[in-house]
Amino acid sequence: MTVGLRLDEAVWGLLHQALQHYRDNPRATDHLRHQLARLEQPLRIAIAGPWRSGKSTLLNAIMGEEVAPVDGVDGSTVFTWYEDGPQPSATAYANGQPPQELAIVKSATGMRVDLVGWRAGELRDIVVQWPTRTLRQVTLIDTPATGRDEQGRAPVMERVLRDADAVLYLTRDGRDSDLRVLETSRQSAVGQAAAVHVIMVLSRVDETGGGRIDGLLTARQLARRQHRDPRVNELSVHVVPCSGLLGLAGRILSESDYAVLAALARVPRPELETHLLSADRFLRGDLPVRLDTGVRAGLLDRLGLFGIRLATTLIRTGCDSRAKLSAELIRRSGLTELRESMARLLVDRRDTLKARSALAAVEALLRAEPGRGTEDLLGRVEQILVGAHEFRELRLLAALRTTRLGFDAELAAEAARLVGGDGVGLAARLGVEHDATVHRLWDVASEAQWRWRNRAEDPLLRLAQRRGAQVVVRSCEGMLAELAEGGR
User: Fold this and answer.
1) Which of 197, 219, 467, 479 is in Cβ range 3.0-4.6 Å of 205 for a Cys bridge?
2) Confidence at residue 1, expressed as pLDDT on a 0 to 100 scale
3) Rounded to an integer, what distance in angstroms lies between the CA atom of residue 455 and that of residue 341?
4) DSSP secondary structure code for residue 105 in this structure
């Protein structure tokens, strides 16, 4: 929401200026046309993080089906793309070879792609098409483990930042090594001005606190502390704790799984706990309930020891059906909060984030291939960044999720709504019915602008609060400008 030229319109114009500038450079023009095409494509969200951070499990949980990972080859350099399609399919892309269709094996809860015959390092990308609502607005990218090479570069993250519009960065605890990888995103003018495309996910939180039932609460407290950390705030718009394993288990929980868990829940808790001290005890011990090894292994694979403990506790305390247990596992996993954050901060802002990607691509091209006239185009990049109110809205939304601005809960909720935290449409921003008349929308927007302008000019408020109020005022001005334009 901006007064005058929207961010996506400004970036579209910049891309055409750059095309004209590089008209005699086929490689550069192909790259710029690719960026123009990306503006019309679904939002690309990469799931990135270090080894064993749970990337594939989280991707499965988001989709609600077991479609990742792709097995059968050393995937240290392979990016696997999951996009919407009319029927399940998989295509391999290797350097110097034409695309090749891959055989897929369907299962009751998803599919598996085998890559028998491919050698390590041959593949660059695998594109999986899968018909599901989740992929109608986004393309999900499962990436290799991040990290730095011997030269101190982060090659996987560098490609993530080139190819994706937004990132879910998984980390066990937000340690310095993860923050250093994320700092790769700030090595440009666009990265420094608009660090609004990363959500940090504290992953595998079912293992926090030694696997205790209250470990999820501990993880949420850690996420709040991380979000208050200025260094983390510079690199991400939100921090969300999430157990992909628990969330996926909730989404694919079957009636037979529930029946087994309910039988275990009928065992007195002290007696059952002795069998849940380790995976080996659960698999090979003499359980009070007759379960063959295959059933035990399947349950352990889907839920983990923590999930089995939690599920049996939930059944004892009222989750007396598969549907109830499934919903509670999903809620407690943090998956619901993560999906809501993705919707509000990423998917609803897809035009802004895709424009950001194009802006970053143009800046990188101008710096890599300088020449006569490139300084003027770099100046245009800076001008767009300075005027991009959309980025300020996203940064304010991130700040409002903490208490550091000092707004009370009611004011913070109103500010978040006005800058698009409940949806970017006019009715959602103004908190009115979706079929409200233009006259009503104008009155509500005008009143909000007046209230927040008073706060922005109140000398008794802290500077951070006045600046936050200025962002809200600008959003209100944008709404009024849109209504005036529509009226004309």
Assistant:
1) 219
2) 43
3) 28
4) E
Report residue 147 as tokens. 């990290």
CA distance 417 to 478: 14
Helices (H) and strands (E) in the chain, counts: 22, 11
105, 111, 189, 255, 260 from 69: Cα distances, Å: 13, 10, 35, 25, 27
pLDDT at res. 488:
47
Q: Which of 443, 277, 460, 336 is nearest to 61 (CA)?
A: 336
Residue-wise pLDDT for 247-259, tens only, equals 999 999 999 999 9
| Residue 134 contacts residue 86 (beta carbons within 8 Å) | no
Assigned token pair, 467: 């600046």
Long-range contact list for 418-421, CB < 8 A, 24+ apart?
418/448, 418/452, 418/472, 418/475, 418/476, 419/1, 419/393, 419/471, 419/472, 419/475, 420/1, 420/344, 420/348, 420/349, 420/393, 420/475, 421/344, 421/397
R_g (Cα) of the chain, nearest Å: 25
The alpha carbon of residue 83 and the mean position of all alpha carbons in its chain are separated, in whole angstroms, by: 15
CA distance 118 to 315: 46
If you write DSSP's letter for every residue of 12-42 in order, what string do you get?
A: HHHHHHHHHHTTT-HHHHHHHHHHHHHTTSP
Q: DSSP strand E in 238-338: where?
A: 238-242
Strand 89-94, strand 123-129: pairing: antiparallel
The pLDDT tens digits for 404-414 are 678 888 999 99
CB 206 within 8 A of CB 173: no
Q: Which two tokens stand for residue 74?
A: 């050393």
Indicate whether 71 pLDDT > 70: no
**Dist CA 201 CA 319 (whole Å):** 28
Beta pairing, strands 166-171 & 198-203: parallel
| CB 71 within 8 Å of CB 114 | yes
**The whole model's pTM is what?**
0.89
Short-list 374, 365, 370, CA closest to 27: 365
Contact 32, 362 (CB under 8 A): yes
Nearest CA among 143, 13, 163 for reference residue 69:
143
- Rounded to whole angstroms, the Cα distance separating 428 from 436 reads 11
Per residue in 209-244, pLDDT (tens digit) is 555 666 677 788 888 888 778 788 788 888 899 999
CA–CA separation, 45 and 164 (whole Å): 6
Give the tokens for residue 6: 């929207």
Strand partners of residue 80 = 126, 142
